[in-house]
Amino acid sequence: MIDYFSYLPHLNACLNATSAVLLFTGYSFIRARNVIAHRACQIAALVVSLLFLASYLTYHFHHGATRFPGTGLARPIYFTILITHTILAVVIVPLVAVTFYRAVRGDFARHRRIARITLPLWLYVCISGVIVYLMLYQIYPS
């Protein structure tokens, strides 16, 4: 039987990496006071993250969980990254929503305050997602 969904973990890692690059680039633009480029990058990061979420849910609906085959010290390292990634992936959803809502409404003072929390957490979720992928499918493939 052909597994039509086996490519999704690779796509998901690419989407996570793309989100991280867009977030960091958007941050660089706002530091340079280029609001238009900042806005474009942040919207693109949101769209890419939403595509990631759809792809992730599709994969796990059809495939289920994937067991980590690594042993020794790799196991606690992997599970520490996975647990923090998973918890923060849940936490980041309302933070991103509020951050975007405040920007769209033009409430930039409050947008900036929450963005200082949202950005590093969102970056961590994106980057740790790529690390989980690498450990699960590239470094310790089953």
> How many DSSP-defined strands?
0
* Structural class label: mainly alpha
Order of helices and strands: HHHH
Radius of gyration: 17 Å
Range of helix content: over 70%
Number of domains: 1
Strand content: under 5%
Please count the helical segments: 4
Query: For the residues shown, what is the average pLDDT?
Result: 95
Say what oligomer this is. Answer: single chain
In this structure, how is the largest beta sheet organized? none
- Span between termini: 19 Å
Uncertain residue segments: none
Shape: elongated
Give a structural overview.
By secondary structure, the protein is mainly alpha-helical. The protein has one domain (8-139). 82% of the residues lie in helices and 0% in strands. It contains four helices and no strands. The chain has helices at residues 8-31, 35-63, 74-105, 108-139. The radius of gyration is 17 Å and the shape is elongated. 22% of the residues are buried.
SSE topology:
Elements (H helix, E strand, L loop, with lengths): L7 H24 L3 H29 L10 H32 L2 H32 L3
In short:
This protein is mostly helical.
Notable features of this structure?
mainly alpha, elongated
